[in-house]
Design goal:
The protein is 42% helix and 12% strand. It is of the alpha+beta class. It has one domain. Strands 3-4-5 form a 3-stranded antiparallel β-sheet, with helices on one face. The chain has a two-stranded antiparallel sheet with strand order 1-2. Helix 3 crosses helix 4.
């Protein structure tokens, strides 16, 4: 007798199905990166890591800055760029998320009977901004550690 598969309940990947969302939240990337850097400083860097850091510090091809970061001219260390997207509110109450160049990414119309769409768009903007800034700070932490390894600061 052959195996016959019948439609029904699919499998649930082990991604937290059924677990309340507050329990699934991840810790900030910056905190994780700081812990990793502290652990590396305590245990010491490998020869390969030091060589890679020296290449990064000397701006060798293929070792540029991570997107969203820039070099601070005064200190020589890296720093996070500001968040370039903007949350714009029109006098009519309509809201938009725009790029740094002014191109509209998302919008929501004002509704006098309830602003669920406007509030949802604002919440999405705040969430995206916090996530992006956190990731950029984590990248800066990693890059500054590499500069420190190379003896730049």
């Amino acid at each position: 007798m052959a195996f016959k598969q019948s439609p029904g309940r699919g499998n649930y990947a082990k991604t937290g199905h059924g677990i309340p969302s507050p329990l699934k939240q991840e810790e900030p990337k910056t905190k994780k990166m700081q812990e990793q850097v502290a652990k590396k400083e305590k245990s010491g860097a490998t020869f390969e890591e030091v060589k890679a850091a020296e290449k990064f510090a000397s701006k060798a091809p293929g070792t540029g800055l991570i997107e969203g970061t820039e070099t601070d001219i005064q200190s020589g260390m890296t720093k996070a760029k500001g968040y370039e997207k903007k949350f714009v509110t029109q006098p009519s109450g309509d809201v938009f998320i725009t790029t740094g160049g002014g191109k509209t990414i998302a919008s929501a119309k004002f509704n006098p009977h309830g602003n669920k769409e406007v509030e949802a768009l604002k919440k999405k903007y705040e969430s995206d901004k916090a996530s992006t800034e956190d990731a950029r700070k984590a990248n800066v932490t990693a890059q500054n550690y590499r500069l420190k390894l190379a003896g730049k600061k």
